[in-house]
């Protein structure tokens, strides 16, 4: 039986990664389709920007409740049905006749995306032992950028062949396929989904999380580093173009290099934590954040005529660190949670992150507009993220040896 479970966990990893990619095909795919929505509904630039933002607001309202359901009943039906409802919901955009109706549909679409991240993290925590959990989490996290990359490539092509409605239905179909396959192939571990009447209520879990001060610096790291990640996506190309006077084609190429670096970082950094650091997530995460600050400051002080190879290396490294951190963060958060509230704890952390996903790019852009420069905002952001490792180190020292924070699957 143990041998069967050992083999099956790799199937679990495959379908969890695939389901994550299918869900992200919808949420990240909203970006490439925003221009086509703009043409179809005659939207302004401001309204077009809101389209991209509103789908990220939905998970704020759902992740904590959905995480509680997964703690109670397991991941299979929550993730599977969540993906199917995600697909059905985005398909309703087929009937959207106004900007307001489209916003309502996208808002509820984002609500169902709230099953993807906390559910996938809970799956990896349960099925993979501590010694290779980091690498498994890193592989699963590649589903997000891969789903987004495939959406960016395929959805415009579908649009030009079948129109906007064809692209919308394509998004819905992909999400539903991911949900159906997850329902077919995934099985909850027996005994892990607790349906007993004496299980903790959501309010009790939230109080448990509130009283666990070790989680606070981890939550802060999530907020500060997700800001870096979103600024890479939203502002790095603009910085290269306006700050370093690179052409749009060069800037786009360097942004692609950064995104590839992020995909590599999500796997390699988590593998490093499993092997070189023997399952310790805190040390490599602190090193990653320190290094990210150094890279940001280096980019901020680059002269206009910088060496192309240097800029290429810095772009890759910025993405490698500034996007690759997430796997270390999510596995540390999962392992640090109380066993009876893993999905709920992850959901709380990601809900807080989601607020910064919505507001951080706008705040950074506002600072650049006011200061007419990227240098000071980059320096301020570097100082902001450095608070995380310092706070985490202090919290770690307060733990006694007996207070292990790791769950063995």
From TrEMBL:
Compartments reported by the entry: Cell membrane
Domain Major facilitator superfamily (MFS) profile positions: 9-400
Membrane topology according to the record: Multi-pass membrane protein
TM stretches of this protein: 12-30, 50-70, 77-96, 102-125, 146-162, 168-186, 214-240, 252-272, 284-304, 310-333, 345-368, 374-392
Name listed for the protein in its UniProt record: MFS transporter
Pfam (any one): MFS_1
CDD domains in the cross-refs: MFS_MT3072_like
Species per Swiss-Prot/TrEMBL record: Bacillus changyiensis
Keywords: Membrane, Transmembrane, Transmembrane helix, Transport
Cited InterPro entries: MFS, MFS-Transporter, MFS_dom, MFS_trans_sf
């Amino acid at each position: 039986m143990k041998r069967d479970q050992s083999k099956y966990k790799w199937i679990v990893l495959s379908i969890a990664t695939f389901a994550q990619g299918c869900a992200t095909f919808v949420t990240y795919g909203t970006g490439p389709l925003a221009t086509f929505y703009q043409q179809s509904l005659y939207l302004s630039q401001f309204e077009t920007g809101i389209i991209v933002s509103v789908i990220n607001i939905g998970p704020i309202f759902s992740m904590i409740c959905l995480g509680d359901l997964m703690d109670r009943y397991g991941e299979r039906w929550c993730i599977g049905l969540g993906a199917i409802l995600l697909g059905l919901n985005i398909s309703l955009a087929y009937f959207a006749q106004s900007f307001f109706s489209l916003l309502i549909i996208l808002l509820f679409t984002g609500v169902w995306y709230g099953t993807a991240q906390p559910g996938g993290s809970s799956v990896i925590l349960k099925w993979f032992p501590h010694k290779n959990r980091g690498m498994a989490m890193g592989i699963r996290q590649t589903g997000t950028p891969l789903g987004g990359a495939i959406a960016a490539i395929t959805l415009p092509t579908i649009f030009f062949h079948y129109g906007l409605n064809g692209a919308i239905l394509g998004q819905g179909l992909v999400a539903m396929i991911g949900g159906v396959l997850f329902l077919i192939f995934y099985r909850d571990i027996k005994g892990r989904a607790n349906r007993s009447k004496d299980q903790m209520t959501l309010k009790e879990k939230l109080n448990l999380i509130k009283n666990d001060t070790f989680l606070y610096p981890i939550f802060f790291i999530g907020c500060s580093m997700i800001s870096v990640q979103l600024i890479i996506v939203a502002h790095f190309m603009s910085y290269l173009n306006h700050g370093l006077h690179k052409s749009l084609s060069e800037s786009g190429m360097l942004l692609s290099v950064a995104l590839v670096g992020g995909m590599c970082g999500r796997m390699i950094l988590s593998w490093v934590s499993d092997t070189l650091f023997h399952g310790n997530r805190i040390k490599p995460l602190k090193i990653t954040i320190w290094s990210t600050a150094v890279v940001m400051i280096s980019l901020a002080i680059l002269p206009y005529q910088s060496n192309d190879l240097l800029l290429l290396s810095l772009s890759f490294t910025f993405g490698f660190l500034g996007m690759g951190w997430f796997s270390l963060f999510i596995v540390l958060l999962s392992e640090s949670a109380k066993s009876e509230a893993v999905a709920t704890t992850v959901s709380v952390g990601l809900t807080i992150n989601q607020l910064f996903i919505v507001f951080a790019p706008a705040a950074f852009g506002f600072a650049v507009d006011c200061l007419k420069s990227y240098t000071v905002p980059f320096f301020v952001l570097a100082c902001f993220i450095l608070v995380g490792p310092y706070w985490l180190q202090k919290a770690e020292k307060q733990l006694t040896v007996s207070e292990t924070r790791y769950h063995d699957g």
